[in-house]
């Protein structure tokens, strides 16, 4: 069998050599690729191994992309015994080799992507799914610019007397608060040492982390990321920021929680995706060309997102817990509606200057895979533009009082069934990624279904 002698990802040995020369103190590197759940998997290598990875890649088993949320094989993905769990080759992603902040001894990190031995992209790698959609758009003269928002909870490592999670005490002075504290700057001061370390880590990694706020639940926060003209970089920023937040929280003795709905009585955590379209000259194709008249490209993009949302909800809400987030008037949309400057809808066109016109996609939970979310949304935009889909009337009031125009699944099982049979989603993700993702979700659904939750004992143990 022929093998690839140069990097199909475009990485070069010169990049690694320059990095090593600039960072003589770094002793090891995390090499990380992401599975269908967005979980970073890989290895820690020693400094002397880095050049060989840039020179010839690193063999990794194909099964690494066929794992469930617990890291166990899912045979139905076709990536395990059907292919003999063969080795493929992971290659570094250009521009992702960075130092890690605060590691002792010093370490670096590089993102990887999986390829066949002949250099063909491995179809179950989520990064390739997004790359495929971005390249299809580029062939049409369209260049998506994007940014994600990250909502999360900082929780105490121990639970309360009832077994419930509770907000972390302030790392500054140990002060506790069970209040919502939304937008409280004084409350943020209690976590200032932790957030300062996060900002230092993101700066070192080349990530432009921006605003932090105290969000709409006790212990909940939001960080925004700088808008990127490269949608792949926007997704890379998000996965790296999650790892930074998680590690920094551990160092301060608290837990960073990226469950979609960790606290039953309060709002869950979203991963809002802001997207606009640029032409080859960098002009925003969503901007209005006539005052008081919506841009048709923007409207058709909204129409495509609405038309495909039912098929795509499993990507946006991939876990059992994801579906607990969708509740009336909880800042999580329950319909496929759209509106301007309206946080009760699924697709929000934010207020602001025409030059910055964009769509904020709000259904995704923070537990979703950003590569698959972005790939699916780009495919929906392409679908809307190709078919000139009308998004229907704008929602101007309370979007929670409206029913969905298109049939949306209302629970995890329905979303799995819709995704499995969806021609749109198969095209959006690619056949291999679609099979892997839906097979993993089916396996996880079976695991959850056979697990007896505490509420069953509370309700039925002594009563039926």
Provide structural commentary.
The protein has 464 residues and is of the alpha+beta class. The protein has helices at 13-22, 50-56, 126-139, 185-189, 192-204, 231-251, 296-316, 370-387, 412-420, 423-429, 431-449, 454-460; strands at 28-34, 40-46, 58-61, 87-92, 98-99, 107-115, 143-155, 209-214, 220-225, 255-257, 273-278, 338-340, 347-349, 359-361. It folds into two domains: 13-122, Roll (Ubiquitin-like (UB roll)), CATH 3.10.20; 134-456, Creatine Kinase, Chain A, domain 2, CATH 3.30.590.10. It has twelve helices and 14 strands. Strands 7, 8, 9, 10, 11, 12, 13 and 14 form an eight-stranded mixed beta sheet that branches. Strands 1, 2, 3, 4, 5 and 6 form a six-stranded mixed beta sheet that branches. The longest helix has 21 residues, at 231-251. The chain is globular and about 60 Å long.
Write the layout of secondary structure elements.
Elements: H1 13-22, E1 28-34, E2 40-46, H2 50-56, E3 58-61, E4 87-92, E5 98-99, E6 107-115, H3 126-139, E7 143-155, H4 185-189, H5 192-204, E8 209-214, E9 220-225, H6 231-251, E10 255-257, E11 273-278, H7 296-316, E12 338-340, E13 347-349, E14 359-361, H8 370-387, H9 412-420, H10 423-429, H11 431-449, H12 454-460
Parallel strand pairs: 1-6, 12-13
Antiparallel strand pairs: 1-2, 3-4, 4-6, 5-6, 7-9, 7-10, 7-11, 8-9, 11-14, 13-14
Helix pairs in contact: 3-8, 5-6, 7-8, 7-9, 8-10, 9-11, 10-11
